[in-house]
Automatic annotation (TrEMBL), chain A:
SUPFAM superfamilies: Cytochrome c oxidase subunit I-like (SSF81442). GO terms for cellular component: plasma membrane. Coiled coil: none annotated. One of its GO terms (molecular function) is heme binding. It is a multi-pass membrane protein. It is an enzyme of class 7 (translocase). It catalyses: 4 Fe(II)-[cytochrome c] + O2 + 8 H(+)(in) = 4 Fe(III)-[cytochrome c] + 2 H2O + 4 H(+)(out). The chain crosses the membrane at residues 38-58, 78-107, 119-138, 164-190, 202-229, 249-273, 285-306, 318-339, 351-379, 391-415, 427-449, 469-490. Its EC number is 7.1.1.9. This is cytochrome-c oxidase. Pathway: Energy metabolism; oxidative phosphorylation. One of its GO terms (biological process) is respiratory electron transport chain. It comes from freshwater metagenome. It is found in: Cell membrane.
Automatic annotation (TrEMBL), chain B:
It is found in: Membrane. Keywords: Copper, Electron transport, Membrane, Metal-binding, Respiratory chain, Translocase, Transmembrane, Transmembrane helix, Transport. Residues 277-290, 299-316 have a biased composition (Low complexity). This is cytochrome-c oxidase. It is a multi-pass membrane protein. The keyword Electron transport applies. PANTHER family: CYTOCHROME C OXIDASE SUBUNIT 2 (PTHR22888:SF9), CYTOCHROME C OXIDASE, SUBUNIT II (PTHR22888). GO terms for biological process: ATP synthesis coupled electron transport. It comes from freshwater metagenome. GO terms for molecular function: copper ion binding; cytochrome-c oxidase activity; oxidoreductase activity. Pfam families: COX2, COX2_TM.
């Protein structure tokens, strides 16, 4: 033993083998987290487009009272496809897309922990989307994205649409589960030297929480849809009250997944905001620990509020009270986040680039969604508001105005890293304002539509109260919003070719993904710097400056 | 805050049917109390919104990048952070207290007014006491949702459920009288909702749900609503109406319903004897009532009510 003086390092003589470029084959066989991330983003944004067209059709039908543009069956199919697409095929997986691309880069890893499983997650998502949209050629489901029983049972919807929906839930669910385990292991094990938990970027914190929530919530809906499948095809009666089953069981299982799902959708958005604000205010995030802790608190409480979607069901008062109180409590950590974000902007020097605009647009909009959330959480009040357009407005404020604005902020922020080119600032700003105005024109008035007595999920309404004018305003807003989104799509496609070359760190940002080239090489980093704070890039820039200013630079 | 709430109520007191900022009310005390509770939270929400949004806008204007401006490299402020956490918790606590104070008045039925309809002693249901007014007296109507219509079954003094007065689409009730509802479904989920008369209650097969309302004397008239839970393709056409009449008119209405029911019962018995062989087939043919009706407001005149009740009786 004493003879060994140096640690033996395995020496590999590397001769680089020129791989022939194989185009798309490279993409479908890749296990590189960056390519998988790009595929996630491309696929999910495509689904966003499809879901958006469905939304515009819905709004067209509702533009005027007693419209006969769409028949009732088609309308129900459209709302089901719209909701399912946006939730299962856009917002949840788009976060996985950003997570895939950026978590390894941000924590200084060379790839995800399990690259092959990572590819599997993506292909499960693609398969789920394919199965679901295949139903368009037969009979798309008509049960809403919540597919409540008994409506979704074989007695009332015998055709295959509901089954396609079930398979979508299963396939995308397996993909998400595998992906979540992968994120968890990656963040737990592959962090750069010196990156302690309290130096983990806040986006990575939210992706970690997203993964844990998915792991906890998905089994409930997997069970729920499996029971539905056996009820529909194998003669079981889990949900049939005539045979001792219970339709409430479905609602509990669905929402035990469904509420955490809303935080699954929005928490990574919070993470993006927490990355973008400090960069463009040129100031550290205000209250890093409080923000990270409130992420975890929201996730924890978020697992205990599911029955606030069931306040009008025949449930005992104690149940209603419990879920009311837990839902109200969630607004406290949510408030902490909002205050800390404003604290981040306070006394900064704010640069009004497009990512910042979207982040601030998110802040203002999400604030309204959070306030209406508290109103809905009071169950006697919810008795009036439940299943009306007020709820539709609420969840679009948090999902479209919240999560999706955050996604757009992330897109403008990270596009240079992914492509090596900047998106056009002017077009980006036009797109932002169009989207912001379009969004509020569409959804603010929907609160009043609901208060005026219009339930959700109805294809036609009578010309009573102010419904006609409110709905027309909402439809006009939807088209403005659509144009705004289209502008960003054009911007992204054009910038791929014509955008200004960005260099490794165009924003002078804080986290490690900006340490490497844009786009990053296959191995991400040749050398991973040691991390000394939450803002390693700031440290590195300061260090370079210090060395440049030294009178006699010591040669390294 | 309260002043703001009251102010808003006055400002928007305009056209009765149009609700701009708060849920509809005016037909029943529970709806009015929900409206008040909503107004309080809404006012608190408006104040919070103005404060937070104001801070955001101020920051955007005041702290925009200017030549020479330097960002303060600040990582947090523990006292401030504890302060706003406590503030948020305080607001939630206050809202919780207000809600708990108002909850009983919304959930538990009021007593009927002295000049309401005198509920015959024999009409009492074996309902859980908590679901009845304090004096134990209410007009308890059974509401059954089915694709795509509501059926209302009125109580009577005997135990035979077959001879009760029934109505479809339109529920006739006396004013000044507490009406409690037992809400059920015989197929998929539906939700009972007449906005001016209070909140929703889901109708789920296998369960009985409950709600109540009491339309004040002097507010006789028609209150409309529609099903609020997706129940199939004609969900949008599953409307519901409550026609509030004076207690005297209600007594008359009930009596006329009963007598025509009795007549129809006799006729039905004869009919049944004649058709004894293919009874089942004939009954099935009469069953799907509302299916084909495209009209938004089915004119439920007394005679068509009679016909429906008769059909209902004949089926059995
Ligand atoms: C302050 C925090 C929040 C509270 C207290 C809250 C409360 C509620 C309540 C009580 C409902 C049920 C309303 C009803 O159906 O009658 C609801 C619905 C909903 N919320 Fe929230 N919410 C909050 C934030 C969020 C966030 C952050 C999201 C998503 C990113 C979200 C997404 C949704 C969705 C999608 C629905 C409707 C689901 C459906 O019925 O289809 N909410 N919220
Ligand atoms: Cu929820
Ligand atoms: Cu319905």
């Amino acid at each position: 033993m004493a003879t060994v003086t140096a640690t033996p390092i395995p020496q590999v003589v590397a001769h680089s083998v020129e791989k022939p470029m194989r185009g798309w084959v490279d993409w479908v066989t890749t296990t590189d987290h960056k390519k998988i991330g790009i595929m996630y983003l491309v696929l999910t944004f495509a689904f966003f487009g499809v879901g958006g067209v469905e939304a515009l059709l819905i709004r067209l039908q509702l533009a005027v009272p007693d419209n006969t543009l769409l028949d009732f069956k088609t309308y129900n199919q459209l709302i089901t496809m719209h909701g399912t697409t946006m939730v299962f095929l856009f917002v949840v997986p788009v976060m996985a897309g950003f997570g895939n691309y950026f978590v390894p880069l941000m924590i200084g890893a060379r790839d995800m922990a399990f690259p092959k499983l990572n590819a599997l997650s993506f292909w499960m998502l693609a398969a789920g989307g394919l199965v679901f949209y295949a139903s368009v050629f037969f009979n798309p489901p008509e049960c809403g994205w919540t597919c409540y029983v008994p409506l979704a049972s074989k007695d009332y919807l015998p055709n295959g649409g509901v089954d396609a929906w079930i398979f979508l839930v299963h396939l995308t669910g397996i993909g998400s589960l595998v992906g979540s385990v992968n994120f968890y292991v990656t963040i737990a094990n592959l962090r750069a030297p010196g990156m302690t938990w309290s130096r983990l970027p806040l986006f990575a914190w939210t992706i970690l929480t997203y993964s844990v929530l998915l792991i906890l919530a998905l089994p409930a809906i997997a069970a729920a849809v499996t029971l539905l499948l056996t009820d529909r095809h194998f003669g079981t009666n889990f949900y049939d009250p005539a045979e001792g089953g219970s339709p409430l069981l479905w609602q509990h299982l669905f929402w035990f997944f469904g509420h955490p799902e809303v935080y699954i959708m929005v928490l990574p958005g919070f993470g993006i905001i927490s990355e973008v604000l400090p960069v463009f205010a040129r100031k550290p995030i205000f209250g890093y620990k409080a923000i990270a802790a409130s992420t975890l608190t929201i996730a924890f409480l978020g697992l205990m509020v599911w029955a606030h979607h069931m306040f009008t069901t025949p449930s005992p008062s104690v149940v209603l009270v419990f879920f009311m109180v837990s839902s109200m409590l969630i607004s406290i950590p949510t408030g902490i986040k909002i205050f800390s974000w404003i604290g981040t902007l306070w006394r900064g020097t704010i640069i009004f680039a497009t990512p910042l605009l979207f982040a601030v647009g998110f802040l203002g909009t999400f604030l309204i969604g959070g306030i209406t959330g508290v109103i809905l959480a009071l169950y006697p009040v919810d008795w009036q508001l439940h299943d009306t357009y007020f709820v539709v407005a609420h969840f679009h404020y948090v999902l479209m105005g919240g999560a999706v604005f955050a996604v757009f902020s992330g897109l403008y922020y990270w596009f240079p890293k992914m492509t090596g080119r900047m998106m056009d600032e002017k077009l980006g700003k036009i797109s932002f304002w169009t989207m912001l105005i379009g969004f509020h024109v569409t959804f603010l008035v929907q609160h009043s539509i609901g208060l005026d007595g219009m339930p959700r999920r109805i294809p036609e309404y009578a010309d009573v109260g102010n419904l006609a004018i409110y709905n027309l305003i909402s439809t006009i807003g939807a088209f403005i919003l659509g144009i705004g989104i289209l502008l960003t799509a054009i911007n992204a496609l054009r910038s791929l070719k014509h955008g200004a070359v960005s260099g490794p760190d165009p924003w002078k940002a804080n986290t490690l993904e900006w340490f490497t080239q844009s786009p990053p090489p296959q191995n991400n980093f040749d050398a991973v710097p040691r991390v000394r704070s939450v803002e390693p890039m700031k440290d590195i820039r300061a260090e370079i400056e210090r060395r440049n200013n030294e009178p006699n630079p010591v040669s390294a | 805050m309260i002043a703001l709430a009251i102010g808003l109520t006055l400002v928007s007191a305009g056209p009765a049917s149009a609700s701009f900022w708060a849920p509809q009310s005016g037909g029943s005390p529970n709806a009015d109390r929900i409206h008040t509770l909503y107004a309080v939270v809404f006012a608190v929400g408006v104040v919070i919104f103005i404060a937070v949004f104001g801070a955001l806008v101020y920051a955007m204007v005041k702290f925009r990048a200017r030549p020479g401006a330097v960002a303060e490299q600040l990582h947090g402020n523990t006292r401030l952070e504890i302060g706003w956490t406590a503030g948020a918790a305080g607001i939630v606590l206050i809202l919780g207290i207000v809600t708990f104070l108002m909850l009983p008045g919304i959930r538990n039925p009021d007593n009927s007014d002295a000049d309401g309809w005198a509920i015959p002693a024999g009409y009492q249901t074996a309902k859980d006491k908590e679901l009845l007014p304090e004096d134990g007296k209410s007009l308890n109507i059974d509401v059954n949702g089915q694709q795509y219509a509501w059926r209302f079954t009125y109580p009577d003094a005997d135990r035979d459920r077959q001879n009760n007065v029934q109505a479809y689409e339109e529920m006739v009730v006396p004013t000044g009288t507490t009406v409690t509802l037992d809400i059920r479904s015989s197929d998929v989920g539906h939700a009972w909702w007449i906005p001016k008369l209070g909140g929703k209650a889901d109708a789920l097969p296998g369960y009985t749900n409950h709600t109540w309302f009491k339309i004040p004397r002097g507010k006789e008239g028609v209150y409309v609503g529609q099903c609020a839970e997706l129940c199939g393709r004609n969900h949008a056409n599953m409307t519901a109406r409550v026609r509030a009449v004076t207690p005297e008119q209600f007594t008359q209405w009930l009596a006329s319903q009963k007598s025509s029911l009795a007549q129809a019962g006799v006729a039905a018995d004869e009919f049944r004897e004649q058709q004894a062989k293919n009874d089942a087939a004939a009954a099935a043919a009469q069953a799907p009532e509302a299916e084909g009706s495209e009209t938004q407001t089915p004119e439920a005149s007394t005679s068509s009510d009679d016909a429906e009740s008769a059909a209902g009786a004949a089926q059995r």
